[in-house]
Design goal:
Layout: E1 15-22, E2 32-33, E3 38-40, H1 42-46, E4 58-60, E5 69-72, E6 77-78, H2 93-98, H3 100-110, H4 121-124, H5 134-153, H6 159-170
Parallel strand pairs: 1-6, 2-5
Antiparallel strand pairs: 1-3, 4-5
Length: about 180
């Protein structure tokens, strides 16, 4: 689990660099994330609690809408509105991303706060999902990519189809 950080906005040398720096508003369950709206410098990365995460890291918003997910296409950093998963080589990032309906549901149950809900890294670590073999993950991932590509290619697909897919995932044997 990896949180994020924000360089001091009053120090110009920390901003407008070439390091992607994502905020929760940029993550909306649309798959891979390529480029952030704002960028920080290497110095800004070094002098803050932001960390450079590798490509294939699964970002999970922890505030301002708990449970939205995206996958880093390239190494990047985030602000503190995330609890992100840096996966091992045996875990398919698109499989984990495809579990968004389950992970989001569980994360929102554990989130707390009076002004807005938020989930900590400690609370996120309590979320358990069953992970099948790498081969099964790859098969599920391939199927979900095909479904998501079909949906993206045809904007006329009724939202009901998306809801059915998400409900099917949430009711699958992988949820708790």
């Amino acid at each position: 689990m990896q949180g994020g950080g924000t360089p001091d906005s009053g120090i110009a040398e920390y901003w407008d660099g070439n390091v992607n720096w994502f905020t929760p508003t940029e993550v909306s369950n649309n798959g891979y994330l390529e480029s952030s709206n704002r960028k920080i410098t290497s110095l800004g990365l070094k002098k803050s609690s932001a960390r450079l995460m590798p490509a294939s890291t699964v970002l999970i918003t922890s505030r301002a809408g708990v449970g939205r997910m995206g996958i880093l296409k390239y190494p990047a950093s985030t602000n503190q509105g995330f609890q992100s998963l840096i996966l091992n080589s045996a875990t398919d990032e698109y499989f984990i991303y495809s579990m968004q309906p389950i992970i989001s549901k569980l994360a929102n149950r554990l989130a707390s706060g009076s002004t807005f809900t938020e989930i900590s890294g400690k609370q996120m670590e309590k979320i358990e999902i069953m992970i099948p073999t790498t081969g099964e993950q790859n098969r599920i991932s391939s199927l979900m990519k095909c479904i998501n590509n079909l949906i993206a290619a045809n904007e006329q697909v009724p939202k009901l189809v998306i809801k059915i897919v998400n409900n099917s995932l949430a009711n699958s044997s992988f949820s708790n």
